[in-house]
Amino acid sequence: MSLQVFLQAQLSGVEEFLTSFEAGVNDISELAGRCAWLGLISEVLPLALLAEFSFSRMLVGSSGGEQFLLVLPDESIPAANDFLARAAKEIAELSGGALRLIWASTENLGPWPVVRKRLDEALHRQAAAPLNQIGAAGAISAADAVFEPLAAAGAAGASEYFRAFGEALPASKLVSWSPDQPARLQFTSGKHSWILAEHAAAESNAIAFPRRIAQNEAGSAPASLPELGALAEGTPAWGILRGDVDHFAQRLQRAATVEEHILLSILFKEFFAGELSVLCTMPDFWRKVSILYRGGDDFAVFGAWDALLALARELERVFGRFAEQHLKSLAGLEGKSVSMALAVAAGDDSSPVAVFEQAGAQLLAAKAAETGTFCLFGRTLEWKRVDDAEELKTGLARLVRDYGYPPDCIHDIASVYREAYSTQATRRGKAIRVEKPWRTFMRLSRVIPPSRNKELANLRSSVITNLVGKSTANLKLRPSSRVGLEWARLATGS
Questions:
Q1: Residue 464 is inside which H or E element, if any?
Q2: pTM of the model
Q3: Rounded to an integer, what distance in angstroms lies between the CA atom of residue 246 and that of residue 275?
Q4: Under CATH, to which class is 4-208 assigned?
């Protein structure tokens, strides 16, 4: 009787792969192609391996999100290692050395936490090994994949491949794999092919890979970045929103059984695949937002800046309900909150790759400061404080639109805020007390002068309260106020 063996594989170097290439201004096709390929390769490779060995698809434990877990008979491990070594070599070449496929296997002996620890230790050794020593021999069986040095020409044609991949994605019905090019997925026929399904399908030959791509006004092609930006309220600008579940890896490590590990992996992957797809069909988003990437615990979308902001808030709300329903019985806070960051393109000459990278850096900074936060316009806020920023934005927008205040008043208020807000407080991200409150209050009163109109006076009072609090003798400037000011500036086009 064959002994069961767990084989775990991971892709490392993802951020470098998605950001270390030159992209044209307002041209997102290559980035979209890279993201789509990345989302599919960790789904296709395990299925291709099983198909090559005539094994059942049921042996896939989890897949997607740059990783997969298989259960294999022990006698098939050498052949599996050879299969993955060939795939790893072409992945490295195709990505110019940015991506590395690492893997390890171990017998299904002992409790799952012990098995998981053995796999983690082996993967850590693989990740630390030089590129030409992936799969070095150890206590856990793995492959000896020796790579030739990657020359500059190693990734020749890669940009064209990923660009074509991204352009063909919207209309593609299937994805194919061939052994002679184990990393170059195609949307045409190959040795093995799988249907790209919109939902988790019961069909044995389908991969759940729903796509939501905003179309232009004529509905004839995907909307360009300028077209998406033109649909935004106020300032015509597009942006990229990235999100990531907080401490999801730690949540998986706390799984007591392999069944719990697999269930959690599938739950989170299906949440992002399903909820993002549904939200992007809603009236507020279907023409303004396109999905760029969905992983096992993270995502990226692009579109009109105001639609992305609204999408982020709605997705956080839905995720809170999801976590409460599915993780309520699990101890600890790992995996129960999500952090996001929105980067808005600075102008018509903005590169999608640069905006994507900016959103990623802001997301990392937000997660490092505090979990369950939203980095918006360069400021990190708790989710509940976004409501405060929106209230200020709404008040300022009404002053401009309904009462004829000049849009420049928002810039004047922002200058008052910047002068009073210390560098130390900015780093802490907390409200601070103003040393000379009367001076700040007087300057605000000059920018937003009093009025005898009762409704306008109430609105003015609400705006000032949102900025500095209710007490004129104890003014405090809050981080959410800076976000609200920038939000209002964009919303009014000032």
A1: helix 454-468
A2: 0.89
A3: 18
A4: alpha beta
